[in-house]
Protein 1
Amino acid sequence: MKTVDSKTKQLEPAQVVTMSIQQQLDAGLGTDMGGVKTTLPMAMAYIHREAALPTADMKQFGNTVFLSHIVKDGGSATTRALNVDTSKNFTNNMVNYLLYIQKKGVKILLAPVHNKRYIDMLRVSETELAAVDIAFRVETSSSGEDLLMFLLDGRSFT
C-alpha cells in the first residue's frame, strides 16, 4: 500500500479518496457490486453520491478522510476511513476524528475493519482515549465482518 506521510505532504481530500479507493480496488476489496466488477469511476461516483446524502459528514485529518453517516437523532453514527497516511499518523488521525465526532454529540460509532493492524494500533491509544471518555471493542456482525464499536460518552463495555 502506498502511503503519503501527512507530516511532509498534506493531500487534498479528493486525492486521498481517489488513492485510497484505487488501493482498495487493487487489493480486491469492494470489487463486486451486484456481480459487476467495480471500476475506479464507479466507486468514485458512489462515494460522491454517498457524501451528498443529508446524513453524511466528511472530515479530513492528515491524509485520512472519514465519511460518516449520523443517525437523525445524532446519538449514533457509522463511519469509514479512506486512508493513505502512515500507520502512526492514521492512529493519530483516528483519535482526532473520534474527538471531533464526539463534540458533534455522537455517543456510539461503528466502523468496519479492513485492516486488523489498525486495531492493535488503537489499543496503544486506549489509555489516551479513556482519558477523554472513549472506549472501544471489536464486534463481529451477523455477516461475519469485524466492526469497531466506540462508546463516546464515558460508558465502558462491562
Protein 2
Amino acid sequence: MLKTSLTIFVPILTAILSVGLSIILSIIITRMKNNAELIKIRIESERNFAKSLFEKRVEHYPILYQILSDYAKKIKYDRNDIDNLKEFREKIDEWNSKCSLFFSPQTGNFSARFRHFLGHLMHDNVPNSIIENNWEPILYMIGKFERFLKSEIGIIDIKPIGEIDEIKEIDNYMSKCEKNLQLELKKCDIDFEYKGNYLRSNKELFEND
C-alpha cells in the first residue's frame, strides 16, 4: 500500500517541483531582461540628451561668440569706450538670460565672474582712469571666454567636451585682476567683493557634486 502511494506521489511531487522551478527561472529571466531593457533605455536617453544639448550649444554659442569677438576687435583697434562697454555688457546679459542654461558648471562660473567684473567696473563712481587700466584684462577674459565656448563643442585644438588645461593660470590671472580692481575701487569708496568659487576643473566640480 505504502509502496503504491509512493509510486503515485513521487511523480506528482517531481512534476510540481519541475513546474515551480520553471516558474522561478522564468521570473528570474524576465527580470534580467527587464533590467537589461531599463539599462538600455537609460543609456539611450543619456545619449539623446547629450546630443540635444550639443545641438543647442552649436545653435546658440556662435551668437555669444560673435558678441565677444566683435568687442575684442573694438579693443584691439582702439574703438572701445565706456558707452560701447555698457552695450557689450547688456548684450552678454541678454544672451545669458536666454541661453546660459546650456553652460557647463565651469563655463557658467566663468561667465558669472566675467559679468560681475564688468558690472563693478562700470559703476557710476568709477573714474575713467580705472576703466582705462582694465582694457587689457577685459581683452584677456574675452579670449578665455571664447575658449570656454570652443571647449564645450570640441572645436580646433581644444580637448573635446570640456577641459581647459590652464584653468589654474586663468584663475590666478582673474584673481589678480579682481584684487587690483578691488583696491582701485576701494579708493573710490566702492565695494567690490566676489562671492563665487575659484575656477575649478570640470573633474573637480563633478567629484564634489
